[in-house]
Amino acid sequence: MTTPAPSPRKAALAFIFLVVLIDVLAFGLIIPVLPHLVEEFTGSTATAALWIGVFGTVFAAIQFVSSPIQGALSDRYGRRPVILLSCLGLALDFAIMALAPSLWWLLLARVFSGVFSASFSTANAYVADVVPPEARAKSYGMIGAAFGLGFTIGPVIGGWLGEVDLRLPFWFAAGLALVNFCYGLFVLPESLPPSSRATRFDWRAIRPYAAILLIGRYPRIVGLAAVVFIANLAHYVYPSVFVLFADVRFGWGPWQVGWVLFLVGVCSVIVNAAVVGRLVRAMGERRALIFGLCCGTVGFAVYAFAPQGWIFLLGLPVSALWAIAAPASQALITREVDVDMQGRIQGALMSLVSVAGIIAPIAFASVFGLFIGERAPVEFPGAAWALAGLLLALGALIAWRHAPRHAAASLQPD
Q: Is 132 helix (H, G, I), strand (E, B) or coil?
């Protein structure tokens, strides 16, 4: 008895999962070593920290510009060439980082990273092309699982390789991206048929502010887009303050922090891979979105007020359920948008995420510093977590008010 071959749709989804996993894994590899490489060039930890902040701002700003361009290109010419070009570009980018002779070369490489990593929006549009609306939340949950798995394993491998040579993780990441390109070149089918593509490349749509304004053409997704923006603002509390907060509040060093981040990643993978699909089917996309945001609110409240480390850890599985919100919101948004606009809408959403990445780190770091400094109105190291929790509570209220209550909705812009 022969085993039936996987359907083209399942094979394509498997590849998209691998594209996201390998790309995120490659980015995770460089997390523990990039600051040290910058420190080598600057000769000062304080100066290196400042430059890492500059890198983060540049990366988010470039993504803000690049995401709508990639979305429009994928709507006009198809998803496959955009995804393949991104994989090849990331391979070149990581190689530049590995060879970088100066800080300015590293900054140039971060510019390339921002350009080519914008393909995540194209991957989301690919899922919308090949998956029926009722199954998209589960598929987006698997994409979320790829993110969680990549950022769970990547830093561990990167740290181990960095002990051998500081530039070795960059070479390894370049190799992964190149393997991704070669695999996709022979395996990945096109998901958007010519008949469903945009008839022309809309230059007006690639302007970042125009991409965001594009969301306004679909009033039913404006509230959902606001939820996506607010949720991503809140998410940046992790990279902005977690390491310093853990040291100030609990005396955790890098070893403890590494294992806590590992647990965060494991919880994220479990929720995205095993819980999202079941809960969305049981609750519906709207209720799942609100439930996920409420879980994030409660989890951040635990983080903010935990008097001891073990109580902080109790918040991990609660806040992990917040991961349900992202695929639920994606599924709701894709129901409201025409097939030939999916790429541009996803690009616009990525632009919103990039804006959040520009704003949030400064905001959370400022709040954290204010409440632990000499002039603190009250000593409260968890203030940044409390702010993130309030943002998610606001997102839940907006979702309750604006998320569509019915699956069937008009796909035409006003």
A: coil
Question: Would the pTM count as exceeding 0.70?
Answer: no
Checking if the pLDDT of 170 tops 70, the result is yes
Domains identified in the chain, total number = 1
Query: Residue 134 contacts by C-beta under 8 Å, 6 or more apart in sequence?
Result: 407
CATH of the domain at 336: 1.20.1250.20
| pLDDT one-digit tens code per residue, 271-320 | 877 887 788 888 888 888 889 999 999 999 999 999 998 899 999 999 98
The range of the structural domain enclosing residue 370 comes to 10-190+202-402
CA of 207: how far to CAs of 64, 201, 342, in Å? Answer: 10, 12, 17
Residue 414 lies in a domain: no
Nearest in space to 344 (alpha carbons), one of 240, 141, 192, 174 = 192
Q: Could you tell me if residue 3 is inside a domain?
A: no
Contact assessment for residue 144 and residue 323, using Cβ atoms and an 8 Å cutoff: yes
Q: How confident is the model at residue 204 (pLDDT cuts 50, 70, 90)?
A: low
pLDDT class of 354 with cuts at 50, 70, 90: confident
Closest CA to 283 of 332, 234, 235: 332
Residue 370 has pLDDT above 80, yes or no: no
309 contacts: CB under 8 Å, gap ≥ 6: 250, 252, 256
What are the CA-CA distances from residue 27 to residues 93, 169, 370 (Å)?
11, 10, 31
Taking only the tens place, the pLDDT of each residue in 225-248 is 888 889 989 988 887 777 667 777
Q: Which long-range contacts (CB under 8 A, 24 or more apart) does 95-99 make?
A: 95/170, 95/171, 95/174, 97/30, 97/34, 97/37, 97/167, 97/170, 98/167, 98/170, 98/171, 98/174
Please state, in angstroms and rounded to a whole number, the distance separating the CA atoms of residues 253 and 397: 37
Assigned token pair, 264: 């965060």
Write the single-letter amino acid at 244.
Answer: L
Residue 237 is which amino acid? V
Give the integer Cα–Cα distance in Å for 162 and 34. Answer: 10
If you average pLDDT over residues 70-96, what whole number do you get? 84
